[in-house]
Amino acid sequence: MTPDRADRAAGLVETRRALAAGEVTSRALVEEALGRIEAAQPTLNAFRIVRGEAALAEADAADRELAAGVSKPLLGVPVAVKDDMDVAGEPTAFGCPGAFPPVAADGEAVRRLRAAGAVIVGKTNTCELGQWPFTEGPAFGETRNPWDTGHTPGGSSGGSAAAVAAGLVPAALGSDGAGSVRIPASWTRLIGIKPQRGRISTWPWGESFHGITVNGTLARTVADAALLLDAASGNHDRDPHRPPALTVADAVGRDPGRLRVALSLKPPFTAVPVRLDPEIRARVVELAEKLAELGHAVEEADPPYGQIGLTFVPRATAGIAERVREAPDPALLDPRTREAARLGRLLGGAPLRAARRAEAVLQRRIGAFFGSYDVVLAPTTAVPPPRIGAFSRLGGLATDRAIIAACPYAWPWNVLGWPGVNVPAGFAGPGLPVGAQLLGPAHSEPLLVSLAAQLEAELRWHERWPPLRADADRPVA
């Protein structure tokens, strides 16, 4: 089914082409996006803030530039950003309740999107401080999966994923501190790129959550996700991580060559029992078989993760403690957030320093694995998208155990700071999307994007949409 333009957003590449050719105006596209958002909000609840008047004014300015022959990578294209990113004149609540003041300036990633000509139509929902792989909370309610509204789209970039999967916007920025781009991309059938640390600035946080969190992109196609990545990439003058510049979109359509692919189905040690859902295992193995058909050498092998989890917890919880200190009323926060902040205050000294020192050791050990393999193929999650409310009544420890069991595969690459790309792997159960990760060593975004695009050309996953009605229960072909 090919939707009408007003029903679902065309892709980023196509939207840019149509605008440059004068086939449509930015104002018309933004009006349509705002209409879709308004219609879907009661059901999907993807947005925390909708910038109606401001976005239309920015669209009118873009149309004047287009008429004058100005060329920019995303001139006039409507996109969304996650509500952990500063947009001038809007609050940055990061999923939290309370009266957050408007910020004075754009964060660096948003500044670069604007410099590329993009129109920011709104800020998307995320769970409190991005801690969990679901997007629910007392500040905004439940964000729902457009493939089945009884289930979560994942998190913490669940609002961005729901908005893109439903066709409300062509693409969106999210952030990924333990899989928070890749997990919702998996559960909503999207491409989710977690880039190299520093590729997209997290400024005004030089190191978000002590370096484990990066900004990334969500889109329906590899080309769209790569285009948004290039537009948002770059550094603030005070960023501590400044990887060499890359133009990732150039890798789309490029032959990746014959690659050595490690199929890794075993999660790193977590001290929590983990069971990979048999249907997800089958879908990931099918992707491995497709890679073999394409000429790649595929064999089962697991990176030498060791006790990498010991280095993750201090960085994550110390980051939560820092963010809680900035909340206008911490008493309003979820008790699980306050509990994590207390732990973070305990771990924020010597344990945090030890965790940071261990990173170089882990990079060398796991980097040696890439002497034998070019890419790791792994499940993105261990289970399909859970039902809405599945975690809402759990205490802190029970929540941690449940989310580790559901999502044990993504977070090691946050410790390492290296790139990963979620690709759709098919469906599990009653039409629930699941995904797989392509993981690489430092600065490997072009290789991963080239391989993802090769798979996309074969499997055509972007041609299947969720139900056209936002309140429908099951996907249609």
UniProtKB/TrEMBL annotation:
Domain of life of the organism encoding this protein: Bacteria
Enzyme Commission numbers on file: 3.5.1.4
One MF term in the entry's GO annotations: amidase activity
Annotated ranges, domain Amidase: 29-448
Cross-referenced PROSITE patterns: AMIDASES
UniProt keyword list: Hydrolase
The protein's enzyme class: hydrolase
Record's signal peptide: none
InterPro entries xref list: Amidase, Amidase_CS, Amidase_dom, AS_sf
SUPFAM superfamilies: Amidase signature (AS) enzymes
Keyword Transit peptide set for record: no
Cited Gene3D superfamilies: Amidase signature (AS) domain
Family designation: Belongs to the amidase family.
Name of the protein: Amidase
